[in-house]
Amino acid sequence: MLCMRHTPPIIQFNKILDSFAKMKHYSTAVSLSHRLELKGIQPDLITLNILINCFCHMGQITFGFSVLAKILKRGYPPDTVTLNTLIKGLCLKGQVKKALHFHDKLLAQGFQLNQVSYATLINGVCKIGDTRAAIKFLRKIDGRLTKPDVVMYNTIIDAMCKYQLVSEAYGLFSEMAVKGISADVVTYNTLIYGFCIVGKLKEAIGLLNEMVLKTINPNVYTYNILVDALCKEGKVKEAKSVLAVMLKACVKPDVITYSTLMDGYFLVYEVKKAQHVFNAMSLMGVTPDVHTYTILINGFCKNKMVDEALNLFKEMHQKNMVPGIVTYSSLIDGLCKSGRISYVWDLIDEMRDRGQPADVITYSSLIDGLCKNGHLDRAIALFNKMKDQEIRPNIFTFTILLDGLCKGGRLKDAQEVFQDLLTKGYHLNVYTYNVMINGHCKQGLLEEALTMLSKMEDNGCIPNAFTFETIIIALFKKDENDKAEKLLRQMIARGLL
Prior knowledge:
Blueprint: H1 10-22, H2 26-38, H3 45-57, H4 61-73, H5 80-92, H6 96-108, H7 115-127, H8 131-141, H9 150-162, H10 166-178, H11 185-197, H12 201-213, H13 220-232, H14 236-248, H15 255-267, H16 271-283, H17 290-302, H18 306-318, H19 325-337, H20 341-353, H21 360-372, H22 376-388, H23 395-407, H24 411-423, H25 430-442, H26 446-458, H27 465-477, H28 481-493
């Protein structure tokens, strides 16, 4: 087009630039716009708006404002697309206060903004977690600057539900009805999700029934929220009933629906039913994905069906599916717990080759397996290898290793690891202390165990029943009855007995 004798109008170039922007090739669009100007082809307002959009998505908001300056210099009146894009760009960068200040400046200069502008600002305020400020802003614009719409209310309701402020979210939902703003499927889905995460399933199902009465068609996402919540509560029969309602309403279940139901069956130890759901998926024309296989592999491993898990893992490879870190971690954990450590090293190498190096969870599972199978030196070596690879062990990793060393009669090594924990400033939990106290008691070092109990409380860690019982039993075995009875009275006083 640039080489044609009669250069096409700018509108034709804009179509190409806009296509690149929509495909998220922002830098290409910017580069091509420079070539236009070098050829002496003057951009119009649409060209410059496309450029602002590209700069904003590239995080180069300063260049976006430079284009605004160019628009004003050329005498083009900036339209709402120009202004909304800049507001969105500031919000994407997390510069919400600057976006609000820019809004105030625009109003002072006589510019008119629309519902999209205000929905963008409200979304920005909600994204930084300030739902109160979002409501305050909604009240400020209501009737004075614009008429609030369903998008604005949905944005605030969604943020409130994510912060578990479900009663307040429902209050806004009721306010919408009073103001004559019709709730849509997004509003209901958001509230149903909110009620589910706070455990109010009855209210969530009530909203589903209300949707049907108001002829607002629930979509697959609506049903998936309810299936997930019911499965997590162990109410798989009820979840299956929701699936039946879904099918009756001619809403086709997707891979998430079936995967969630499978997970639910595993939670209540109904392995065969989980397998049945997996097999039924293909018959219903739904293709299992990596997440589906991961759920099944994890479920099999937790139910000590490691061979079945390995077969599924091989099936993933045959289907050219790339397992995720969770898939690997689940299988490694299952293999370690079943004592099949030799298989694990190949998986660790495979993970590295696929660019998914083992993480702290993978290493923790492997250390646990090595400890339980008596390979304590290899467990220590692997623990040190973690640090060499800059994978920071968490308190869970430390506790696994300490437990293995104590049970393996290597208290001195455990004490060194425990000291390392203290030196590095880890926040120790009751389980870590219990492991060390139990280790000292087994070696007959009761004074050290009692000292550790005192230090535990000094560091703000509250002992539980197991802590006291471990020391009391050891004291009685050593005929130190007075000390044992004193601790027993403490247990009673704390309501642990």
